[in-house]
Amino acid sequence: MVDTTTVTEMVAERRPPDLRRGLLGWLQANLFNTLLNGAVTLVTVALLAMVLWPVLQWAVFQADWLGNSREACSGEGACWVFISARFESIVYGFYPGAERWRVDLVFAALAILIAWLAIPRLPAKRWVGLFAMVAFPVIAFFLLVGGVFGLEQVPTGNWGGVMLTLTIATVGIVGSLPIGIVLALGRRSQMPLVRGFCVVFIEFWRGVPLITVLFMASVMLPLFVPSQVEFDKLLRALVGIMFFWSAYMAEVVRGGLQAIPSGQEEAAKAMGMGYWQRMGLIVLPQALKLVIPGIVNTFIALFKDTSLVLIIGLFDLLAIIRSGLTDSDWLGFATEGYVFAALVFWVFCFSMSRYSQHIERRLHTGHRN
Amino acid sequence: MNQATAARADSPMIEIAGLNKWYGDFHVLRDIDLTVARGERIVICGPSGSGKSTLIRCINHLEEHQEGRIVVNGMTMTRDVKRIEQIRRNVGMVFQHFNLFPHLSVLDNCCISQTWVQKKPRAEAERTAREILERVQIADQALKYPGQLSGGQQQRVAIARALCMQPEVMLFDEPTSALDPEMIKEVLDVMVELARDGMTMLCVTHEMGFAKTVADRVIFMDQGQIIEQAPPETFFNHPESERTQLFLSQILGH
């Protein structure tokens, strides 16, 4: 026999009990909740202090910041004068001094365009995006290369430093994503010829090391094409980098495409959408959102691997700093040089990473069905 | 069939003749002949694996058939992509798992094919969408995303999305099978409403109450064939074939 029970009054809603109040509460709950954890916390803090303190001493407190020659270096800590004295060449490479405003203009415009597209509140996204994708590359090309409108021609051999690194990275990123998307779609195509081409392309470029690609582009390619046809060395490297990374991008995007349930495409088909509409409006927006971490991962790897162009004699940020190390006036500042290069790379890569996390949160539209 | 729809039923909405389909070596649809008049409401039922979903998915070419002829609204189905897309614009479909686009708001789900396929101006598409969302009683959720809605609400949005294309015929592929029991009614109410307005409908469903209320004809399929078709009273009260009797006793008998 079961007794009947009925509730006559509903339980009122109330807030969860607050167990972790304030800094002390948090410390107790997270770092010192048991004797062992307390000990581990203390040891970790001690180790961190032992490592961090000397680094800070070297890099900040005992470092030399001011001056313009080797005499300014006291030798107690880092001598950042090495960087500031060569700052111009680190940023511009061998770009002629009088023409550097062109570089400034291009990268200032690039920064404004990226910021405009990244900040949601600013209007006219479509037009700015169109300008950034179509007009800007042309303008940037003629500004940097010159040779028209009375601008002095600057051979790409004179490009270098941060400017060259950013050029390669931007072209690589902007080029590899669309090519990668097309390759990913092609690899899933029903047409055997298209699919076959994409598979071969992806597997070829993914199967060779980037260094080989760069070598082939700079050393072997000229042997195969007639001598009167001359491609710019930087251009060849850019094409190589773009194809190489687009193969990786294709596989990242394909992963996203495969994760979209087939019902999505069926629903789009049932409403009479054609292939490109189904892909562009329904499948790709979801697939790309899903693989943002993978895409940004590839971007970051691409950005860092731009430093491999030093192998074919292009002076990117890292190569310019390395060349400074052999300057007889500045022997022995390798640590400062590499630390600075690492810092610059890290700032760019970390920004990309943070921005991608922000984008992921913004595009989140509740649970998937 | 009521008089108004019978009057303009000069040519059939859908004509299927000698339809055969195989998945590999497996013969899923066998010699299907089916004519659907304009305004007719048909319920298709049968055990799972009997080919009923495959049959209605052939009508808008989500599945390709190997033999036979399908004519929808006077257009014969071929393999030509343009023609298939044209036929699909007249055929609305509602899926078991809703298949709403999770990255678009409810309103955009309803507008996207109007603006891209029918090339309507955005304002006009939005007006149509809001009208139809009103009809399925979900207009207040227009700016939410599908992930924020209950299953019943999502399925009603899916019906609205299909109706926004102003289709001549609606296909329902088990529209209530994925829903929690308390949400089935709100979806069925919308479908009954739609049937009353004279929409031509083909519904694959196990909701026999729905079949009794609105169907002009109930079709029973088994092993890829149409075994029996009859008006609902005859179908439920005097089923002829043994397999139909067995099926009905299984789904109604508890």
* CATH architecture designation of chain B: 3-Layer(aba) Sandwich
- Span between termini of chain A: 44 Å
Shape field of chain B: globular
Unreliable segments of 5+ consecutive residues of chain A: none
SS strand fraction of chain A: under 5%
Protein name (chain B): General L-amino acid transport system ATP-binding protein
Family (chain B): Belongs to the ABC transporter superfamily.
Membrane topology (chain B): Peripheral membrane protein
Keywords (chain B): Amino-acid transport, ATP-binding, Nucleotide-binding, Transport
Structure commentary:
The complex is a heterodimer of chains A (369) and B (254). The longest helix of chain A is centred in the last third of the chain and has 30 residues, at 334-363. Chain A has 2 domains: 22-81, no CATH class; 87-95 and 154-363, MetI-like fold, CATH 1.10.3720. In chain A, helix 10 (233-259) crosses helix 12 (275-290) and helix 14 packs antiparallel against helix 15. Chain A has helices spanning 22-30, 35-61, 81-85, 87-92, 100-118, 125-145, 161-187, 192-207, 210-224, 233-259, 262-270, 275-290, 292-305, 317-325, 334-363, and one strand at residues 315-316. The mean pLDDT of chain A is 86. Chain A is built from 15 helices and 1 strand, in the order H-H-H-H-H-H-H-H-H-H-H-H-H-E-H-H. Chain A is mainly alpha-helical. With 254 residues, chain B is an alpha/beta fold. Chain B has a single domain (3-253), classed as P-loop containing nucleotide triphosphate hydrolases (Rossmann fold), CATH 3.40.50.300. Chain B has 10 helices and 10 strands. In chain B, the strands form 2 sheets. Chain B has a 6-stranded mixed sheet with strand order 6-7-8-3-9-10, sandwiched between helices. A 4-stranded antiparallel sheet of chain B has the order 2-1-4-5, covered by helices on one side. The two termini of chain B are 31 Å apart. The model of chain B is unreliable at 1-9 (pLDDT under 50).
